[in-house]
Design a protein that fits this description.
With 104 residues, the chain is α+β, with helices and mostly antiparallel strands. It has 3 helices and 5 strands, in the order βαββααββ. Strands 1, 2, 3, 4 and 5 form a 5-stranded antiparallel β-sheet that branches. A hairpin with a 2-residue loop joins strand 2 (37-47) and strand 3 (50-59). The longest helix has 19 residues, at 13-31. It is globular, with a radius of gyration of 14 Å. The two termini are 19 Å apart.
């Protein structure tokens, strides 16, 4: 398994709500139809007066990520709806091999 991690920030509470609804209502549901997609999380915290989001998706393989992100899996996919409300965001995604999980 591979975890794909990306970060973005919004400058206003209203934009944070818009972004969160877009990701959880549009982006993450669209991933369910991709072979090899296993899970998605959206984390948030307040930092320096902004709302920071960390998106983490879990994939079966590099090939599964390529089906979503293209051949250069390090390039972030940031849709126009997200760009419109984010004050800053990473233009890259980091990938980590999952070596251990524990769930209750």
């Amino acid at each position: 398994m591979i975890a794909r991690i990306w970060r973005g920030r919004t400058a206003t509470a209203a934009n944070a709500g818009v972004y969160s609804r877009h990701v959880t209502g549009t982006v993450f549901p669209s991933l369910k139809g991709l072979a090899g997609h296993r899970a998605a999380w959206l984390l948030r915290r307040e930092v320096d007066g902004q709302t920071e989001f960390l998106a983490m998706t879990l994939w079966e393989s590099r090939q599964a990520i390529e089906a979503f992100a293209g051949r250069d899996i390090a390039k972030a996919i940031v849709e126009p709806e997200a760009r419109a409300v984010l004050s800053e965001f990473d233009d890259f995604a980091n990938h980590y091999e999952v070596v251990f999980t524990l769930s209750s």
